[in-house]
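request received
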Amino acid sequence: GAGVSQSPSNKVTEKGKDVELRCDPISGHTALYWYRQSLGQGLEFLIYFQGNSAPDKSGLPSDRFSAERTGGSVSTLTIQRTQQEDSAVYLCASSPASGRAGETQYFGPGTRLLVL
Amino acid sequence: GQQLNQSPQSMFIQEGEDVSMNCTSSSIFNTWLWYKQDPGEGPVLLIALYKAGELTSNGRLTAQFGITRKDSFLNISASIPSDVGIYFCVVISSGSARQLTFGSGTQLTVLP
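response:
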């Protein structure tokens, strides 16, 4: 299993609860991205990690959203006090070192989040 | 922000037919990508275009990077049932993030 994996596959939660979504990137990939895909829409960039550099958080929609990447590998996206509009598929992607080769992003299957 | 206009939104075609979809932008981009998303899966890269005017093929897929660097098209020839899915045109932002900006997608349905 050399691909990007995400867990859980599906998550149903109640409005106001916190959720954590996990991403395991491809081994050796230094770049990791989180995207959000609302129903019938394209993907919306959320946050980017590259090696040990400070993450680019420019896509996070509010301060309820945060992410961390431990040891340069696994990443966790946390949504606090979830709202119904947070319902979406959250996709993680990883990429080799930057440069043309690094522009190929490999996506995980996503976590489908439903906030009731 | 950056916005890609992708059309058509959806297509229903007969197996064996050719398909064409396109994408335009008001901004210039130096890299255009086409991704495909199967149901329940993440997007997968089909074709990458790095040079204005470039025409690139990958099996039954052909994509072109517009000479103005503001558009691209994707053609699929002799469609088959496994071509079903959502096709996205994608550009790469400049700057450190190298984030992908996705078009709204073309939902392709292939009828037997």
